[in-house]
Amino acid sequence: MKQTIKKRKSQTLKKKNLFQHLNQVTTRQNPDYWNTLTEEDKKTWSNYMIHRFLSMKMEWVEVVNELQKYKLQPKDLYKLYINILPKGKQFLKYTKRKNQMDYPNWEINVIRNHLECSRKEAIEALDMYMLTEGGMLEIREILVKWGIDEAKIEELGINILGSIGHGDY
User: Fold this and answer.
1) What distance in Å separates the CA atoms of residue 155 and residue 143, rounded to the nearest whole number?
2) Which among 131, 59, 122, 65 is positioned nearest to 97, based on CA atoms?
3) What is the mean pLDDT of residues 61-67?
4) Is pLDDT above 90 for 131?
5) How confident is the model at residue 132, as a pLDDT?
6) Helix (H, G, I), strand (E, B) or coil at 5
7) Is the dihedral of CA 50, 51, 53, 54 positive or negative?
8) What three-state secondary structure class fits 129?
């Protein structure tokens, strides 16, 4: 009977989202965390988004800025952050731009599904992605991954020069 219960629990476990990863980096700081993640959980990790949220704490801006210059593997970035940042619950409020953009519902829903987060969190994530060319490239990759048509992506105005494998730009 106990084996059946364990199987059911493992089958219904949701994959981790950005905010659960951030909680691990700041609050829990388990050195074995990365080894406990499934492949699906590892796919939800985004170095870019981790940097963006951690940089919202003014005391950490310089450290985050320095670390984002290096192309670290997600596992290495996690280990580095848990060794540098103080352990404890942190309030990482995202600072929005004044001229907030309007995103089509379908784009918000794709990001919601990808990050497994609320509508508000998806809009905040889109706002952050749109701040840099690298972020826009990541949006494009997410949309392509979720099967969004090239024409629809072009309507968003996030065509990035030099993107790989996406037509002749």
Assistant:
1) 13
2) 131
3) 91
4) no
5) 82
6) helix
7) positive
8) helix
Residue 102 in tokens: 């309007």
Please state, in angstroms and rounded to a whole number, the distance separating the CA atoms of residues 124 and 72.
24
Query: E-strand spans in 29-141?
Result: none
Is 150 in contact with 167 (CB distance < 8 Å)? yes
pLDDT tens digit sequence for 81-92: 999 999 988 877
**For the chain, domain boundaries:** 15-84, 105-156
Instruction: Please give the structure tokens belonging to residue 52.
Output: 């963006």
75's tokens:
């596992």
What gap in Å lies between CA 94 and CA 16, rounded to an integer?
A: 20
| Tens-place pLDDT, residues 3-29 | 544 444 445 578 888 899 999 999 999
